[in-house]
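Dear Dr. H.,

I hope your travels went smoothly. While you were away I took the liberty of generating a structure for the chain from your last submission, since the lab meeting agenda had it listed for discussion. I wanted you to have the full record in hand beforehand rather than looking at slides cold. The sequence, exactly as received, is reproduced here:
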Amino acid sequence: MGVILKNDLKGSCRLGIWEITEEYDELRSKLSLETEEVRTLDGFQNNSRKLEWLSVRRLINELTGSNTRIVYTEARKPYLLDNSSHISISHSKNYTAILMSKFRRVGIDMEFMSHKISNLADRFINKKEQITESPELKRYHLYIHWCAKEALYKICDKKKINFKQNLTIEPFDPQDDGIINGIVDNVYGIDRYEMYYRRMGDYTLVWTSK
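The corresponding predicted structure, in token form, is as follows:
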């Protein structure tokens, strides 16, 4: 299927989503990889992991219009080798999402709403946050919180973050798409983020930039 969404967003950001329907050979054939990248790809034992990895490279090339190399910090935070943009990556089941910006830090998370996330809520929902009692919306509401906190974790470089203690999503009523506020309160200080969310069928997508 390939790119199903490529949008320029508020804040000089670009969002892309790739739906993985291709087989390995089709995804691999359109990429020019360095020796180190081939070694990394061949090291994955799981075919789904290989497809995810390839789709990320195909998608970043579509977003930049060139053969762009992604590398990682020791904390596994992705960045572009040429430092032309900040990037954040997420993949869940059959989708890969990338948010990028030349001037702003970015964070994105996309999740397939597959399991009973309510069983895990105590691990990441704090007393300041409010979850709807509606049986039809509760799971989705929790997934928005989870994705929002993942996006904040990424934009903060994965440093000194406990999802329950350091991250708070201000109360909101869940819609198909909307804007929410996230607060990071850790050893580095307190910071506030405007965040965007969207429901895409059985998936939840949240992104932010600063």
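Two observations you may find useful: Helices lie at 24-29, 35-43, 47-64, 138-155. Residues 175 and 189 are 31 Å apart (CA to CA).

With kind regards,
E. W.
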